[in-house]
Amino acid sequence: MGEIVAAMAGVHAPQLLQKFAGEDEEKLEASRDALLELGRVLDRTAPDVLLVIGTDHLETFSLDLVPTFALVTGERATGEFGGERFDVPVHRELATALLEGLVGRGFDLAYSQHAELGHAFATPFRYVLGDRDIPVVPLLVNVYLPPLPTGRRCEALGRAIGEVVAGRPERVAVLASGGMSHFPGTPRYPNPEFAFDEWIIERIEENDLDPILDLTPPQLDEVGEGEMLCWFVLWGAMGKRAPGRVLSYQKVWHHGQGVVVWDPAEVAP
Q1: Nearest 5°: phi and psi at 65?
Q2: Which of 11, 117, 118, 132 is the most buried (most CB within 10 A)?
């Protein structure tokens, strides 16, 4: 019987992969260190596969096609960012089982066998997965181009993922790759809503997720928290809710950078 053996979430900001002038490298290094700690969670839990729930910043899809949810089901997860190329094996058996099982449960997922992924996946592949011999399953969530899925729909997708995994033999680690408050490509980019981040962190630490899950996509967008939709899928996939442990939270001038882990013993069904 399969199970979720690790539940994690972490920032994927491009500044973690490239050097940019004017950045606070000390804070960025703290975020990198926290992501490396998530890699050590993989060492302790020894999963058969890492499910990475990430976003598309128009590197994978375009306005010709904007899927709400999409799985990568080909042999390799590939992409390039900042001059670095990554090429990671996909666990095709689980990817196919998720596609079939989720469609069978009423989620009309798109899928791609040759998707080129961006920094939402490059960052965790470098710092969390590293050189570990663990195949992945990438899942993309539309968090930027309306209409967006609701928080509760993302949570329900996560629950369905947990059901599919329970009927499989694999031990699965789940990582939600996404930021906290930031406003990429807008005039608000230098002004993240750090106070809202702190409210979310407080709710996570107190295991009080419902007020966050009930936020509408426009409400999340207003405070720059759209990428939290990936975290909502993670929360649904956990067998039961538990307080999260914040490994790092950094207030960078353009981004609230959070890295959180949930105790596997507490979230397993």
Answers
A1: -155, 120
A2: 11
